[in-house]
Amino acid sequence: MFPGQGSQRAGMGTPWKGDPSWEVVERLSEVTGRDLGLLLVEAGPDELRLTANAQIATFTLSLLTLAAVRRALPAGTFDRGQVTAVAGHSLGEYTALVASGALSLEDGGRLVQARGEAMQSAAVAAPGTMAAVLGLDLEEVDAACKESSGGAWVANDNAPGQVVVAGSLAGVEEARQRSLERGAKRVVQLQVGGAFHSPLMASAQGLLDAALAGAAFSQSSFPVVANVDAEPHSDGFQGLLSAQLCSRVRWRQSLLQLAGPGGRLFVELGPGTELSGMVRRTVPEASRANVAGPEDIAPLVAEVEALTASNP
User: Is 90 a catalytic residue?
Assistant: First the structure.
């Protein structure tokens, strides 16, 4: 699993300096024409919060982490069918496509840069925000949004009792009030730069679709569970990514899909541990691991080796 925007944090690349996998940063810096190492090591929270920075920074660090994990795990781990499927939350779906071989590192980097810039421009054209509604069912949150006169929509169905809404400032505030009236425990404002996965992103669609048309997609090596339908796919990714921009992220359903036959260990690669927390709430019986820094690799290797020994 690969995280999306909002997982980034200042200095998140510092522990990886000197690691052989830092070559990913150098390759993507060349592709994008940006000093991504500077962004990962020296950028402050406000600079990283900008959508055009947050997306490429998170994508880069997640792929660096993947490269380090591939190097550390026994040879052939990614070739023997031990990886049953991959998925990414919003932006993370682009990372998952690179991980699966459906996109090259270079095309992935170009797409993520174009997507971040297009979404940042859309947020300026149609200002909005997002908020996490905690302790309320999806149907109740959806109803609260529909009662909002200012424009609010369910953007992410993350886990039981964790639903994110997006919309105009007035719309999200009204949806917040309606959700609390319906029994929500809390509504937490998210520090994001726009109303992602909502109709307010529509002005970014043309720019994103043009970038997607210029990318070369291949059949994936293992299934990619897509945000828009929570189903496994091995092709058709251009259309899925286009639809994802203004559509709901069906992450709870995606986790249930991943937990199907053969799914024994959920591994989160990249900054933060938010996705692992969503697994705990959605599939509590599942094993979980995350790698955010070099110190997390050895425990993951031990867990994978134990799983392999118990079921060769």
Answer: yes
